[in-house]
Amino acid sequence: MATNNKKISDNIQQIIIDNPRTPNDKLEWININSAGKKEIEYLRKRFKFELSDLRASSSKMVSQRPRIRQGSNYLFLILHFPVLKDGKILPEEIEFFLGHGFLITIHSNRLKELVDFFNHCKKEGDSLLAFKFESSAILLYELLNQLMASCYDLLDQNSIAINNAEKVIFEEEQKKAVTEILHLRRNVINLRKILQNHKNIMKKLMQLESSIVPKEDIAKYYNKLIEHSKRIWENLENQKEIIEVLHDTNESLLNYKISDIMKTLTIFSVIVFPLTLLAAIFGMNVVNGMPFMESNYGFWVIIAIMLAGCLGMLIFFKHKKWL
Fold this sequence. Notes:
seven-stranded mixed β-sheet, 7 strands, Beta Polymerase, domain 2, alpha+beta, 9 helices
């Protein structure tokens, strides 16, 4: 058997990776979902981890930044990875305890990639690179590689959303475009906040030492994660710039529409002004001296004057190329 699986409790599962070629070595992966008092106590009694690290692993505690710390005989690591929930990208926290012959992961079970990789290890553990080396550092690399690869799917979804927003903008649905652009900006900002320190963490993990795997090999594997991090960040930078351009374009179109509406209203008010002026003049209570008062066609003469005034204003605007 390449792997032995065991359910320690409702929230704790264990995989033991055992390569028959190296009978003296075994690799244990303990996966904990939503660590509470019982799970923290289990880790404290079995592994003697420091209390500060155990507290940081509780499901009630949320770290605002990545963290890496060397314990007495283990490495404690906190990383955040993005998850998509109801169209919004949110950070999901994972705590790692890494030591000789063991890897412990603590999370809230919302990262599908981690759950899928754990289940893959249960069924096909002998296909893992970690099975060959029986090294916790290599197992951590494979897990992080899966988690970082999932970020590309989110980047692809962002690209699709950017294309849709561009179509909406040039279909002159500016109000809808404003909502889509703000949604995109929020997601890209959240992704940047989640992933901005990954490269520095991976550089520190390149210094991991193992009694089984040569340090050069560990550095080679973790250097691949650094390359992933760089490519993801470059894509995020490009998406951020495109979104800013779309935002500026949409703002320009909105301003053009507003200017066009104001121009129409201004022209309308100016054309109506002579009508209002003439109506006010001929509406004065002056019995003697008011022109056309005694004429049988006085009303139509006044209407003709008003229409002539409107026509004159239209000709003037046309001449000025304001229409």
